[in-house]
C-alpha cells in the first residue's frame, strides 16, 4: 500500500498518431494509458505492435475504451452486441489489457429497465471473466436512462458479478453536481477505474451560444424564413437587422465579413420570397434571379506545377482517364473518363514541398449560364475577368470567397458556345467501357474562420440545401464537415474544416481536398485501377477488424475490401463504398465511390482513418 | 409601401474600431447600423462625429443598444436608472438616432412584478417621448423574469405608451422555440425592431462541453480535490487517469501537452495532500515541496533593443524611476522607484517594427528560494541554465511554458546572496518621496492555445489561487482574462488571451503585456508624471460621458479623471483607479493603479477602451 498512486492518460487527450501520443505520454512520466478505440483503428501498428511499443516505453495499457450502447437492449440486439464484445475482447487480449469501459446506453431501442441492464451486463462480465477481462460501467451525464453515478452503481451492485464494476468520470459527475456525496461509501473492489477531467462552468448554455456562436442567417440551424415570414405578416415595415455575436467574426477583417452578412440577408429574402404565396407584406422583399437548374459537374479544375503534373497525369491514366483535349491558347489539358472531366492548368506557383496541385475551379452545368452568373453577382460573388480569345467560349466565371473559380457552362457537343470547343482533340479517344460514371461530389477544405462564410456562399449561389453537419476526431484535431446538395442530387459539395487551428505541429497533413468519382462497380474499379498501378491509399488492418466487429459483412466481401483498401459506411438508406489515392502534390487526391441504395453520406465516419493513412503514407515517402 | 425592406447591421457583428465597422457596412450595401454602446465608448469620434461619418457613408443609425437592467426595480434604483437613461437620451440626440433597445432585466434586485415593469417602462417612454425617442423592449432568452417574446409583448401592451414597443430577436426566440406561433398577430405599430441571427442547434450543453471543452484538473471550475478525496476514501488504489476531450489539446504538439497533463495531476496530488487530515488512503499521494511564502515581486525584467531602450528609459524617468544599478558582467540596468524594481536587459533581437520591448522575466521574493525552485522543478518547469560568475548571486531560474524567465530570490540589502549584489551602484540615489509603492500586478498575454497550460503553470508553481475569470469584447476580438493571486495578495498575475486567433487583420495590436505599479495617490501620480512628460495614454471623451451615466461620481473628480486620462472601476468591495502609458516598443506598457477599499479587480472592464486607445495611438503615430 505504499506505492504511489499511478498516473495514466487516455490517448484521446493528446494530438497525433497513436505513436506520437504514446511517446509523449511516456516522456511526461505517465505510468500507463487508456487506449481510445479510434486511435487504434487509425493506426498502422497491429495490436501486438502497440502492446510492444507500450512495453518498450514503460507504459501499461490500463483500459480499452469506449464500448457503447450495450445494455438494456432487446434480445436480438443483445446477441449482436455480445458478438461485437467478443471481437473487442479478442483485440484486448492481443493488446494485453484487462479493463474495458462500457458507457451507459444512448441507443434509441434501449429500454428503461434496470433489471434488464443488470442482466445483460452480467452476461457481458460472464463472457469477459474467462479471459481475465473486467468490465467498467460508466454513466454518461447524458445517458438515456442511466446518467448519474448512483444509478450506474445500483445496476452494478444488482448485477453482482466480480468482473463488473463502475468507472467514475469526474466530468460526468461534477458537471451535474459540483459536490457529490456518497462516493466514499462505494465498495473499492467494485470501483474499477477513475477518470479525471476539469471543465469550465457548465452553466447557461443559451447565454454561451448567444455570446459566442451566433451566425448570420443561413449559416446555422434556425428556420429564419418561417420566422421572418411571421414577422412580415404583422405588417412590420422596419429593417431586417443583423445582430450576431460570434467569436470568429469579431476578429475577422470586417470588409469580407460585412459582405458575408449582406449575402445572408439577400439569401434570406430569396427564401422568404419563395416560401409561400405572395402577400402584400412581401412587397419589400427583393428576390435574386432564381437559380436555373444545375444538372451536374461539367468539370473540375486543378492547378498543377511541373512536378505534380507528372504525378497527376500518371494517376489519372491509371484511373482510366485519357488526355483527350488540349486548350487552343493556354497550357491546359482536358482529361476524360466516361462523363468525368478533369481540366489541368499548368502553373508555376509552388505551394508546398510536395509540389503544387490545387483544386482551383468548379464548373457546373447550368440550363442558363447567364442567369446563374447573374444570380452569383447579385449574391455578391466577385466576378473574375475571363481572358478568352474571340474564338473561345465565354465561361461565366465568378470566385468563391477563398478564391476558387466557379464556371457556369452548358456543354453541348457541337454548340459553338460550349467550353469544349476551346479544346483541340488530341486524337486519343476516351476509354471504351468506363468504370467511372460521373463526378459524385467535390470535397473542399476551408480554414475554420471562413467555414460559415463559404457554406453560405455555396448554399446561396448554387441554391443548395445543407445536409447533416458532422464532426469527427481526426488525428491532428477535430474536423467539422458539412455536405450540401441540390434538389436533384447532381451537385454535391462536401466541406471540411479543422474546428480550430493555430498550432501547426503536423504540417504533413494540410487541408486535403478531393474529387470523388462515382462507379457502379467498386470492386471492379479498385481491382483494375490497382492493376494499372494507381497509387491506392493503404488502409490499416485494424480498420477491417473493427468493421468486422461493427457489422456482419459477407466474409468474402470483407476480405476483398481489405485487400483492395476499400472503406465502408452504412446508414438506414443504404451503403457507401469508397477508396482513395495517395495525396498528389500539395493536398489533393482522387476518390472512387459506390452508393448502394439511397445512401446520401460521404463516408465522413472514415475520414479520420483516411487522414491518418495519408499522414502515414507521407511519413513513409519522406523517409 | 413599395420600398425595399431596409437592411441594417449591428456594429457588434463586425471586428475593428467603429470607423472600420462603418466603412465595411457601407461598402457591403447596408442601409443602416445599430450602434453598440461599447463601440461608441471606445471610439475617439464624438457622437456628432459618428453621426456625420454615418451620413457621409449613406448609413442611417437605426438603433442605440443595449440599455440593461432597467425595469421592475425598487423605487430608489428606478430613479438612478432614469438618470442613466436621460444621459443616454442626450447621447442619442447627438447621434441622431431615435430608437433605444432595452433588454429585459437580469438585475438581482429586480422584482417579479409585471405591473411594476410596465409602469417603469411607461415612465421611461414618457421621458423619451418629448425627444422623439422610441423604446424597444426585448426579452432576453435568459432574462430573469421576462424571457419570452410573449411576456415582453404583454408588458408592452399593458404599459400602453405610443413610444414603447417590442424588439424581436430571432436568437432569443428560436433558441427556445424553433417554430413560434402568434407573432403574426402583433400590432405592427408596436413592433419597433427586428434583429436576426442564426445559430447552431442549442442542444445538449453538457455533451458539447464534454466533447470540446474538457480541461486538465486545475484548469477549470471543478472541485477535483474534494472529488478525488472522496474516491480515495473508498480505499480505491487504481490509477488517476486523465480523460480530456479538448479542441485545443487535440491539435497541440503532444509533447508539451502531456507535460501539462502530468503537471495537472501533480498539482492535484498537492491539493489532495493539503486538503485534510492525512488518512491511510493518502499514502499513495506524492506531494511536491510545499511552496515557501512568496512575499512580493523582487523585480520585473524587460528585454529591450536599442530603439526601445530609449523609449523605455525616458518613460521610466518620467514615471519617477531612477537608474540606480548597473550589472557587473552584463548589459543590464536596474531602475528603481520606491520598492518597484525594473531590470532592463539589452537584446539585439528585433520582434516588431516598433522595436523590441518584451516582458521577459518575473522575479519573486521567496522566503526559501531553494525550495521554491525545487517545487518548480517537481512541477516540471524547465530549469534554465544560470550564467553567473562566481562572485554573483545564484538566481534560481526556471522558465514558464512560453519561455519567460522566473527567478526566485531573497532580497536583503547586505546579504551576499542577494541579486542586488550583482549590480554596481550608479551613484544616483532613488527619488526621495516615491509616489509608487510596489508592483501591484503583472499582466501577461498568452496565445489562446496555451492559456490553460500557462494558467495551471502559474497557479501550481507559485501556489496561486485563481480569481474570477472574465471575458470582454475588445475591438479586434474577444479577450479572456484570468487573474491569479496568492494568499497574501502580494503576488498577483493577470493573464489575457484572445479567445481565438487566426486572422491577423489588426497587427497594430499584438498581445500587450504590462507592469502595474501601485500608488496611494492616483491623481498626484498622474499629474506629476504628465508634467514630467510621461506618454500617458489618451482615453476617449465618450468613456467619461458613459462613466457619468453609469455612476454618480463627484463632478470635480470626474473632471480630473477626464483631464488626466484615469480609468475607473468599482465593485462591492471598493474602487479601482488606473492610467496607462502608450505602448512601448513591441507590446509592453506601464500602468499605475490605486485600490480604494478592498477592490480585488484589475480593471478588466476597461480593457477594451484601453486596447482601442492603444490602437488609436499607434495609428496616429504611424501617420
TrEMBL record, chains A, B:
E.C. number: 4.2.1.118
Residues that bind a divalent metal cation: 138, 169, 195, 243
Keywords, sorted A to Z: Dioxygenase, Lyase, Metal-binding, Oxidoreductase, Pyruvate
A biological process from GO: 3,4-dihydroxybenzoate biosynthetic process
Annotated region (Disordered), positions in chain: 383-422
Keyword Membrane included in the entry's annotation: no
Residues that coordinate or bind Mg(2+): 441, 514, 591
Cofactor(s) recorded in Swiss-Prot or TrEMBL: a divalent metal cation
Record pathway: Aromatic compound metabolism; 3,4-dihydroxybenzoate biosynthesis
Gene3D superfamilies, sorted: 2,3-Dihydroxybiphenyl 1,2-Dioxygenase, domain 1, Divalent-metal-dependent TIM barrel enzymes
Biased composition (Basic and acidic residues): 402-413
Top class in the EC scheme: lyase
Catalysed reactions, semicolon-separated: 3-dehydroshikimate = 3,4-dihydroxybenzoate + H2O
Domain of life the protein comes from: Bacteria
InterPro entries, per database record: DSD, Glyas_Bleomycin-R_OHBP_Dase, Glyas_Fos-R_dOase_dom, IolE/XylAMocC-like, VOC_core, Xyl_isomerase-like_sf, Xyl_isomerase-like_TIM-brl
Limits of the VOC domain: 438-582
MF term (GO), any: metal ion binding
Family affiliation: Belongs to the bacterial two-domain DSD family.
Function summary: Catalyzes the conversion of 3-dehydroshikimate to protocatechuate (3,4-dihydroxybenzoate), a common intermediate of quinate and shikimate degradation pathways.
Listed name of the protein: 3-dehydroshikimate dehydratase
Gene source species: Actinopolyspora mzabensis
Phylogenetic placement of the source organism: Bacteria, Bacillati, Actinomycetota, Actinomycetes, Actinopolysporales
